[in-house]
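dumping the sequnces here before i forget
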Amino acid sequence: MTKKNHTLTLLLLLFPGVGYIALMLAAALVMTVLQSMGLFNFTGVSQFGFQEWVEVFNQQTWDAFAYSTKVAFASSLLCMILAYPLALFLRREFLAKKYFNAVIRMPLFMPALVAAFLILNVIAYHGIFNEFLIRLGIIREPLRLTHDDWGLGVIGIQIWKNLPFQTLIVTSVLASIQSDLENAAKNLGAGPWQVFRDILFPLSIPGIVTGVVLVFIGIFGDYAINTVAGPNYPPSLAIRMYTNANIFNDWGQAACIAIIIIISSMVYAWLITRVASFATR
Amino acid sequence: MTATTRPSVSKSPLLGKKQFLLLTRGTLFPLLMLFGAIVIIGLPLLMAVLWSLVDPDFPWSYPDVFPTRLSLYRWNFVFRFTGITKAIITSYTIAPLATIMAFILSLPSAYAIANYNFPGKEIIRIIILLPIILPGMVVALFLSRVFLFLDLSQSLFGLVLGHTLLGLPYMLRLLSTSFEAIPKEIGDAASNLGATNFYRLKDVFIPMLLPGIFAGSIFTFITSLEEFNLTFVIGTPTYQTIPTVLFAFLGYHFVRTNAAVVSLILMVPNVILLFIADRFLKTDFLTAAYGKL
Amino acid sequence: MATITIKNLVKKYGDNTVVSNLNLSVNDGEFITLLGPSGCGKTTTLRAIAGLVEIDDGEIYLDDRLINDLPPHKRSTSMVFQSYALFPHMSVRDNVAFGLRMQKVPKSERDDRVKEALQMMGLAELADRGPGQLSGGQQQRVAVARAIVTHPVVLLFDEPLSNLDLKLRERLRIDIRELQRRLKITAVYVTHDQAEALVISDRIAIMDKGEIIQCADPVTIYSHPANAFTADFIGQASIIKARVIESNEYGCTVETPIGKLVSSDRPKGASNSVMVCWRPEEITLYQEEHHNRIEGKIESNIFMGNLTDLFVDVNGTSLRVQMGGSVNLQPGNKIVLGLSKDKVRVIEAEV
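..and the predicted 3d for all of it:
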């Protein structure tokens, strides 16, 4: 058949799926930006300008930002530190591997709220974890792990919830490294540690970084888990955003925080990727 | 499977060093790991189950390790008096609708992505993943303003639209990867034998895509069931889903026992669904699916 | 049962011209092979006939009908694909029935024709199996059955035997030829295997870099290659640069690195720089009636069972000489070779 112009067909085909996403997100984005510039203030005065932005950079916003950053970094890094060896362990065959796999994957199918509740239960002030430690004589007073100022509860929940996902990512990254490379290294005399250090680890870094970034962004922008188990002050950025919006009805401020969250996420993602590639040179 | 052999009977009463290592590495260590995994993962679940079965007349509190009496009172209570039934119906109505909508919207786009080369494909791939990457509450909050503007707030239709948005990344990704896996010659052969685009899709492509469609549907369905942020912002208080009910019990009105019951309601179908999927599809479905993401 | 006419076909991929100004006429009921190395454009041409490739310029006719804008599913040009392309989720029977279903043939007639096709290809017992349960040869036969059951006017083959082992290939190519003869369907066959082309074709179109170099029946192509490329591609050839010293209507004499040679062929162009070629089996031990006498020294003797390849050094040029059976000559031995003038072909010098 003589060559036709396919552009129209292509656009029509892409529109339902991709167009849907693009449209909705664009609408939300535009709404956010406009509200941060003072417009669309449904219950107050709409005035275009930077006044919202001037207002938003205050101590509370900074505290929330610092808190969210700290929790996200701690959780995603600790989670990866646990996930990587786990993934390595899962590479070989061992007794009852099938069951181990099944158990380890349980939190994958769990919504964030349920994970939050389950762990909350366990690490509560009078929960079984504290009891256990007291019975063993390791501590005398129960530890305050939930709603604590450090966000330990949140970090614990996030690690627990994201561990299967991270392990899965590392597993698939490791699986995508040709086994021939390992075999060649072994053939040339490399022991297991060297194979890991010189072959597996360097090659797995890009995939690992993606995993860390994805989890990081999710934790950084979290609302639900922080509401359920986080400290009263400082709140996570997302909580602050929500509070401004639906409790103070200050959508302008909320919009600014939203933009801060998005831009910070992108900057952090870029940073993490940069640091990783720099460190591995 | 070499690590599971029992050490041979040796003449000396003590195990030789090699056999000891074999025993530890081969049997003891994995079992320890399994035990550890069961505790870390299973314990919280067990606690939730126990809490849901607490007898109201025998409250479970410190220092008891286990509740003194079990009863189904809580389950009864939750189902009768908390509107959970309505929430369950809502959740299980929105989920299939969102899944169907996501499928219909994804099919043409997935086909286009798999079969055409065009500039900006990478950007399109990123756009497709945005709903999952962007922080949930941010999207939820400002999408809700757009919905308010369009009079879609507090409506079932709005909820379905929102859930579809969140399911599309999975559906699109899995469908386009599945399309890509179909060899080009198969499509050519179908055309060559007289099939119009419609029949080619119906009789050749879709049957071959079924595993991908199944996987995509599962992910979308479950994402919808679990979705909290968007539903909370645009659905409540008119519409409650199971996650929003759970949230209510976890927030200001923290009732541990109710929360336990709702958690289990929310979780069990998910687990069953995903185990079915895992059984049905031969390969390590999850690694493959996440890998494709 | 149709003729195919291709005029000035052009196909580009980006800056790469894969088919350039190709012209071809295929007669009704003819079996024509497109032969050439990878990348020569033969598969692209085949797919253009089927409508599976969008062409940049040119016209394709089936009988007298211009089919350029006819979508692939409306052309009656069934194709057998290199990978067989059997639908994995359908049984053999359903695969074969597919085309008839698309043509909306009523069920009872469809069942009959499918049964007939399956029997013709010896697949009756495999009718309910899935493609995954078949061997390569069986899959290939299903692909052929599927293609012929719709009674197409043209049959297209895209290197259908290249995934099979040698013995199977040798047998199946003859089966395909027999089938085509019996059904009298015009067939276009693509392959890179020159032996296969020689065995089954009515005509061979040799292609290189998007163009048809020579199009003729197998004997002509083999014994009168138009140029060095064809000579080298089909069979083996000794090809040597030569300079025409004198020429008349009975032949010519040329000067070559291995000495003066006489040929009963004449140069085609105006230039005195030409090439001469002959087949290794055409040069042999010198005898009186040979017009050309060539002295040389044996470099190597390679025994291949039914043949022996001798490589002979003549003034620095290595000539290949093929003889039947075994030859009792060792490296270092002197040898005198003879070549008759009608075996020396003059072809255009390579550009």
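The interface with chain C takes residues 183, 185-186, 188-196, 199, 203-204, 207-208 of chain B (CB under 8 Å).
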